[in-house]
Structures are given as C-alpha cells and as structure tokens.
Amino acid sequence: MRDWLLLLLLALACSLLPLAGDNYVLRLGTIVAMYAVLAQSWNFIGGLAGYPSFATAAFFGLGAYTSAVLLSYGAPTGLAWTAAGGMACLFAALIGGAILHLKGHYFAIASLAVGEVLREVVNTTPDLTGGGMGMNLPVPKLSVAAAAQTFYFSMLALAALTTAAAIIVQRSRLGFGLRCIQQNEDAANILGVNAYGYKTAAFCLSAVFAGMAGAIYASWVHYIEPPDVFDILLAVKPLVMVLLGGIGTVFGPIIGAFLLIAFEELVWRSFLTIHAAMLGGIIVVLVLFMPNGLLALVRSGLARLRPAGPKP
Amino acid sequence: MQAVRTVFAAALALGLFASTSAVRAQDVIKVGAPLPLTGALSPEGLKQQRGYNLWAETANAAGGIKVGGKPYKVEIVYVDYASNTPRAVQVAERLITEDKANFLFAPFGSGAAKAASGVSERYGIPTIAATASSREVYDQGYKFLFGTFTPNETLIDPLTEIVSKGDPAVKRVAILARNDLLTLSLANLMQAAAKAKGLEVVMMERYAIGTMDHASAITQMRGAKPDWVFATGYINDLILIRKQMADQGVSPKVLTMIAGPAYKEFTEATGPLAENVSSASWWHPAVRYKGVDLFGTTEAFNAAFEKKYNVVPDYAEASAAAAGAILQLAIEKAGTLDPAKVRDALAAMDLVTFYGPVKFGPTGQITSLEPPVFQIQGGKPVVVFPAAVKQADFIFGK
Amino acid sequence: MIYLQVLANGLVLGGLYAAIAVGFSLVWGVLNVINLLHGSFIVLGSYVAFFAYAYFGIHPFLSAGIAGAALFALGYVVQAGLVNRVIAAPVLITLILTFGLDLILNNAMLLAFSADYRKVNLAHPLGSLELGPIFLPGDRVAAMVLAFLLTALLYRVLRDSRIGRAIIAVRMDREAAALMGVDVKRINAITFGLGAFMAGAAGALLSIIYPISPLNSSLFLGKAFVVCVLGGLGSVPGAMVGGVALGLIESFGAYWLGPEHAITLSFSILLVLLFVRPSGILGKRGYE
C-alpha cells in the first residue's frame, strides 16, 4: 500500500509542475520523466535479475524509429507509440533468447553490440528510415505551451505506468524469482524457478517501456538521427541513476533520474567544457563510496542517528 | 516519509530553476550560441566560437551596437551541447526561456541546426545558422531562420564545370562518401552533376561514421580506374582516406575532398600528400569584398583575425563572424530589439559585407554568395574560381 | 588478383587491431575488469609520440617505449589507488568505475590538447612496398611488426618471469594465488600497468597511421571489444587471432558488401559468436 500511495502522491505532485514553471522547466521535467522510465526499465533486468544490460539504448532507438516510420505512413500517434513498445518487447524476447545465457561481461557486451547493430541497420536502410540523413516527424499542430504540456504529461504517465509495473513485479513471484537469479542462478533453477523464462520476462519488461519512451521522444523532438537515439549514454545514464538512487528498489530509479539530471543542469550552467569530467567524478565517487545508492546512505545515516537521539 | 520529503524537496528545486531566470539587463544584447565544444564535433565548435568572439569583441570595442541611438553591449551566451543533437535542442530552448537571449546562433551543421530551428521558430527568435548548407534545413517554411551557407550544389557545380572543361580526358568518377547528412548530400549531388556532364560514375560507395579503415574501398577504387576521385567526410576521415590512397598508389588526375582541405589542420596532417587536392568551400580568405559591416574589407577582417588568433581564418570561422556582423546590421537597420522587426530587416537585407554580398532567399538561405573553388598548391589553398579572385590555374595530375 | 590485395589489407589491418587489443585482453582476462580507459590510454600514447616527435625529433618507433612506460605508471596508480578498492564487486561496478574515469581522462585530454586532429608526419615516410600487384603500406607493416615484437615480449614475460607466473596464477585462481603468498593487489596493479603499457606503445605506433584526437578513443575501444570476444579472453595468442580475424572480416566485408556495412558485419559476427561460442575462437569453453 505504501508504495502505491507514494506513487500516487508523486504523480500528483509532478502534475502540478506546469503551474509552477515555464516551458523550459517543463522540458527538464519531461527529460527527468523520460530518464525515470529508462532507469526503471533497466532496473528490471539489471537491478532485480543482476544482468548488466546495455540494451536500453537499443530499445529506445528501436521504439523511436518504429513509431517514426509508422507515423510517416500516417498511423495515429497512440497506435504508433503502443506499437513501438510492442516492437521493442518482441525484439527483446527474440534477442533475449540469444544472449540471456551469457553472464557478466559477456552479457554486457552482447547487449551493447545489439544497439550498435541496430544503429548500423538504420543507417543503411535509407529508404525506410532516412539513413544517415535522419528522419522528420510530423510537427503536432499545437501551441508552444500546449505541446510542452502534452509531451510532459505523456512522459509522466509513462513513468507512472512503468513504476506501477515495478511495484507489481517487486511483489510478485516474478520479482522473487529474479532476486533468486541474482543471488544464485543455479540454486534458483534447482528451487524450481524457471530462470530462463524469468530472465526473458525481465528483459521484455526492460524493453517495452523504453521503446515507448523512445516513441514519445521522437514525436517530441520531431527529428531523429541514428547517433542520437542509439546514443550509448542512453544506456549508461539510466544505470548510473539506478546506482545513485538505489539498485533494485522501486523509487530509487526515479530519485536517481531526478538527481542526475538536476546535477547535470547545474554543472552545465557553471562549467562550460568540463561537464563530462564532472559526471565522471560523480560516477567515481558513487562507485567508491556509496555503492548502494543515496537512499541506502540516507537510511543508514538515519539508523545511526536514531538510537543516539533523545526518546520522546 | 523520508521519500516523500525528498520528492517535495525535488519538486521545489525544479521550481527554483524556473525562478532563477536572469533579469534582462537594459543595455545588453544577448545572443545565445549552442556549440559543440566537446564531443565529436568539438573542433568545429571551437572554430565557430573563435568567429563569434572576434565579432563580439570588435563590436564592443567600437562602443557596442547602436539601437535607436543608444549603444548596447553584445554578450554571447555559450552553452556546450556535447555534439549531441537532442541537447542542442534543449539548449536552444534554455537560452531563449531562461537566459532570455534576444537572438540565437544555430548549433553546428545541418542536422542540429534543423532540429534546433523548430524551437527558435516557435518562440519567434531570429536565428542565424553559420554552418548549415543543406536545403532540407531551410525547406521547413520557417520565418526566423537565416543561413550564411549557400546550398550544397553551389559547391559542386563550379567544380564539375572546371574539371570537365579543363581536361576532356577526365571521364571516370569514383565517389566515396561518409554516411552523414551533409557529406551524403554532397555525394548525391556530385553523382548527378557528373552524369549531367557526361562523366561516367564508376564507383559510388558510402562508409559508416567511425570507419577506421578504407583499404578495401580504395582497393575497389583502384580497380575502377577513376580519373577523378571525389571523397566527402570530416577532416579525420579525409586525412585517413588520403593516406590510404597513397598507400595503394591510387593517384587520379583530380582528387577532390570536401569538407576538410580548407582547414590548415588538413594540410598539416597530410603534409606533401595534400598537394593538388581540390575542394570548394563557402568562403576563402583570398576573396576581396568591400563591406559596410564593422570589419569593412575582407583584408581588414583577415588582419583582425590573424592579430587575435595568429592564424589565417578559414570559411567556418569567417562565416561565424559574418553571422554576427549580419545580425548587427539587421539590428541597426531595425533600430529596435523587437525580434519580429529584426527578422524583417534580415529578410529584406541586400548589402555587401567582408564575407560577400548578403541577400537571403525566400527560405532564409543566402543566395548571393559564389563559393570559391580552391586547390592545395605549395602547401596552401589557392583559389582557382571564380575568375574575379582567382590566384592560380587548376592543376591536373597525370 | 584483387583478392590478394584485399587479403593483404585485412592481414595488415588485423595486425593493428591485435596491437590495439592485447592490453585490453590481458586486463579483462586476469582481473575480470573491462577497462573502458583503454581507448583513452591508446590516444594518450599517441600524444606522447606526437610531442616527442614534434619537440625532440624522436621517432614514434622509439618513443613507443617512453609512451608505454608513462602509461604503465598511470595504469599502476589507477589500479592500486582506485580499481583495487572495488575489484571484488560485481562486474557492473568496475565497468562503471572505469567508465567514469574515462570521462575524466578524456575530458582532460580534450582541454589539454583540444580535439583538433593531428598526425605525426615523418620526415622520411616509409612509402609502400610493391609486391607485384599488391601494395603493402610500409608504415603499417613496420608498426605491425613492432607491435608483434612487443606482444611477443609480453608473452615471454608472462611465461618466464616470476611476476608473469604470478599474474597467470592470479588469472587461474585468485584465492589460491593469495594463499600461496602472492600479493594479489600488487599483481593486479602490475597487470593493469602492463595493459596500459601495451595501450601506450600501440598508441605511439599508431600515431603515424591514424589522425590523433581524444575523439578517437571510443573507436579504439570498440575494436578492442570485438577483437577480445572474437579471439577469446586473457590469452595473448587469442588477441592476435581475434585481431587478424576482425581485420579479415572487415576487409572482405567492405569489399563484398560495401564499406558502409563493414562495421555492421563485425558487430553481427560478434553477436553470433557470443551465441554459439562465447569463449572465442581460442578460448576454453565454460570460462565466464
């Protein structure tokens, strides 16, 4: 119940953002929501099952291009976005069959290679995707403010949906099974967990929402190029966000997404050409000093404070 | 409850971003410039920055820009978008809404300029693109976008003219193109132009971005026995292609490469192999114009640039400075900072600058320039066309 | 006849790829760390060679040793000071740590050297060897031969020296090696340093072939990845075989399918190989 209540409160609080801010704040909000989706998505396979996936960028790009191609053939937006999720999910199921038997670094590399292959496939099919020339999407006939709000709420709804899925999965047999797999896959198999099926399910979950995020993103910016939507940073940043917020938790990915984007925005304003190094610095500090994320740090800090404090 | 508090703190912080919007100073003109200062395009970003800085410093040293009799200082707000187009779009919106930029310089190249122009169009902010040449950028029906590069075919057509007239023995053309917006567009135009001149295109291949080896393509090229090799790419690609052509002894009568040889980094990196490489660009320091802008003549601009940076300006640097000079002329003409009026002044502009005559077509792309064709001779790019500024004859290989 | 040239292209390119990947493979195989700094290490080596040639006239073939030594020191410090702290953590942690370190190093190089492409232009270029219809670029062949000699040296060090045997012991079984009195942390640092040495030396040798810029680091890294998976991890011969295999695949792929498909092809083969034989061409089955 607590998780659902939190999600509801969070969604409500976030829907107030258009009252507070101008279009740029809404843009930032949309980006945070988008990365929250990607971080949640990664958390299914990377956080719960412990498989270090770099396929997030592949799913995102695949979703973006699926939706863009459908829209260019005149499909309605809602259908195109949904189909993008479906396509990413189907692709994950297929590719998962091939690479989920790999472990550790091998899985990481295979998932990375998936994105590279997709990018080059898009690059070399100019008739369908525009290839290296990129692809234009229809511009929605909306005012600046209305467009900003539409895409903010679309992305926010998707983030809420993804989080709802995360809550459900965490409490289900699937979540339990995935944690078993993370602890010890062989033992999980012996215990009767269908590891292969569970991993594939987690991989598909990590694809479907990322694909839809890509689709919404494509409609939002209405011009996409292969290097942008298959950008390796789209796979790495969600992972850093999850580490930042707390791996395997429900709200960690959201908090991580918010903190990292906020940090980037601040650094970006203050340091013209060293923001990459600043991001690197954060990652290094994070990995070396708080591998369990900020939430855990806060929790352990509180736990340490409590006994010392005076009892009411 | 901790999580709830975190969330509210977070929402509050987001709100704070909104309220930090700077109060617009009264006597400053802010020009927003999203640039790729890091990432794959950073060499280009730095060039543009040099051009913009020279303009802003020159303008401010002369007392700023006069708007209705009152002098305004120029302030350029740079933001790095790390060569990432989505970020360029985001930066454009931030510069307009948060930093309250009066005007915008578009991000580098055709792709990013196209993506970002949608934002400035929606906010009605006049935007000058200093490095976007592809027609697709300007065909969007936008009113606030202006570009200082003529369309790509203006580079190709004079080249094919010179080569086909200069040596009738040149018959077979091989094209090797980077699979990217500008470079692919140039290659497609070249293919069409070559066919139109009755040349035979014996090879047309694309290579992927990030290709580290061209040996096979060049082996194929050698087999095709071209008289004219036309390669497109960015400077790193072209350095490698030139080197690997030499490795396999491919030496056509004509070797054309776009867009790298105009940069001194190309001649430095390829050394003697740069000799006789031909190219075309939108501007060249050898052109001579008498402008009404703050720099005056082309010679004066070259001198000012060399004084500041100790190097001869190339076309990207000159175009960036010209973007500033053109914006200044439009503001002075309009006599106001009102974006719509400045936009109209840009659209109606018809005058000469150090960069060349400036008149924008109905799409906002400049139509008045005649891009020079040049060739590396004696380690320096020398102009071979147009006749008015020609420094040497085109040299054909054997 | 033309196939002989394509074959020669592939073999020469493969030799360069092997040089790029050897150090990366060593670190991955022994430490189970994917060193994402590897590409930047190579670029740094190229800069050492560039400046050594520009200011002191030292030929890159000689400065390869200097670049290697400098990078060894850097690698040793990085491993001893940072990576060793999380060496036992899940693979994701070390991967992301080196990613962060690479962001810092690459950004620092960008500020220090700018992204402008440079190249070492030898006063006396090596030209091309013409063997009948086949052209062999002299600088590539020379760089390849030197890289091969360095690799052979590394192989001897691993086989015959005390430290080399300790490294192999750690690769086989970390705990057992520790029990036998091997200072595992020190061996880790030396291994990482050796990987960086190979990267720096390779970078110096490549400085006469490729334009030099911090922007190239991800390209080198990408090749190292593919080579390692193709050849099998941690073994020096594996990296050689993987490099040559990739060189041939790209060369023939580009010739048959067109240059735009060469990269797609190499990544597709990587995926297929991971599927059917994750241990690589020379690797042992079951190694994770």
TrEMBL record, chain A:
Q: Which residues form a coiled coil?
A: none
Q: Does the keyword Transmembrane helix apply?
A: yes
Q: Which GO terms describe its molecular function?
A: branched-chain amino acid transmembrane transporter activity
CDD domains the record matches: TM_PBP1_LivM_like
The keyword Transmembrane helix is annotated on this UniProt entry = yes
Where does the UniProt annotation locate this protein? Cell membrane
GO CC term (a single one): plasma membrane
Q: How does it sit in the membrane?
A: Multi-pass membrane protein
Q: Where are the transmembrane segments?
A: 31-49, 54-73, 79-99, 142-169, 200-220, 240-263, 270-290
Tell me what this protein is called.
Answer: Amino acid/amide ABC transporter membrane protein 2 (HAAT family)
Organism for this UniProt entry: Aquabacter spiritensis
TrEMBL record, chain B:
Task: State the Gene Ontology BP annotations.
Answer: amino acid transport
Residue ranges of every copy of the Leucine-binding protein domain listed in the record: 29-368
Family annotation (InterPro entries): BCAA_transport, Leu-bd, Peripla_BP_I
Signal peptide positions on this chain: 1-25
Q: Name one Pfam family in it.
A: Peripla_BP_6
Keyword Amino-acid biosynthesis attached: no
Q: What keywords were assigned to this record? A: Amino-acid transport, Signal, Transport
Q: Which SUPFAM superfamilies match?
A: Periplasmic binding protein-like I (SSF53822)
**PANTHER family listed in its UniProt record:** ABC TRANSPORTER SUBSTRATE-BINDING PROTEIN, LEUCINE-SPECIFIC-BINDING PROTEIN
Q: Which family does it belong to?
A: Belongs to the leucine-binding protein family.
This protein is called Amino acid/amide ABC transporter substrate-binding protein (HAAT family)
The species is Aquabacter spiritensis
Query: What does UniProt list as this organism's lineage?
Result: Bacteria, Pseudomonadati, Pseudomonadota, Alphaproteobacteria, Hyphomicrobiales
From TrEMBL, chain C:
Q: Where in the cell is it found?
A: Cell membrane
Membrane topology qualifier: Multi-pass membrane protein
Query: One Pfam family this chain carries?
Result: BPD_transp_2
Q: Superkingdom of the source?
A: Bacteria
Q: Per the UniProt record, which residue ranges are transmembrane?
A: 6-29, 36-55, 61-79, 91-114, 134-155, 189-212, 224-249, 261-282
Q: Name its GO BP terms in alphabetical order.
A: amino acid transport
InterPro entries according to UniProt:
ABC_transp_permease, BCAA_transport_permease
**Gene Ontology cellular-component terms listed:** plasma membrane
Which CDD domains does the record cross-reference, listed alphabetically? Answer: TM_PBP1_LivH_like
What molecular function does GO assign, one term? transmembrane transporter activity
The alphabetical list of record keywords is:
Amino-acid transport, Cell membrane, Membrane, Transmembrane, Transmembrane helix, Transport
By sequence similarity, the record places it as follows: Belongs to the binding-protein-dependent transport system permease family. LivHM subfamily.
Name the chain's protein.
Amino acid/amide ABC transporter membrane protein 1 (HAAT family)
Top-level taxonomy: Bacteria, Pseudomonadati, Pseudomonadota, Alphaproteobacteria, Hyphomicrobiales
